[in-house]
Amino acid sequence: MLNKQEIILSYIRDGKSQRQISRETGINRKVIRKYIKKYEEKRRDLIFEFTSFLYS
Fold it and tell me: For residues 23 and 29, what is the distance between their CA atoms, to the nearest angstrom?
């Protein structure tokens, strides 16, 4: 079974859709969506913190 990091990398690096990842791994698409959503939220927060730091 793939871990969260491998699923997110498949989505970003390989350009696979959530549906493709779900089919290939057997993991529910809602779970895949949750992993990706949490990743994107953390990424957005880090970018915001970094840009705030640069301009302060």
Answer: 8
| pTM, rounded to two decimals | 0.77
Residue length, the chain?
56
Kindly calculate the radius of gyration of the chain based on its CA atoms and give it in whole angstroms. Answer: 14
| Per-residue pLDDT reduced to its tens digit, 1-52 | 568 888 888 888 888 999 998 998 899 999 999 999 999 999 999 999 999 9
Count of H-run helices and E-run strands, the chain: 3, 0
CB 56 within 8 A of CB 46: no
CB 27 within 8 A of CB 7: yes
- 1 Cβ contact list (under 8 Å, min separation 6): 25, 27
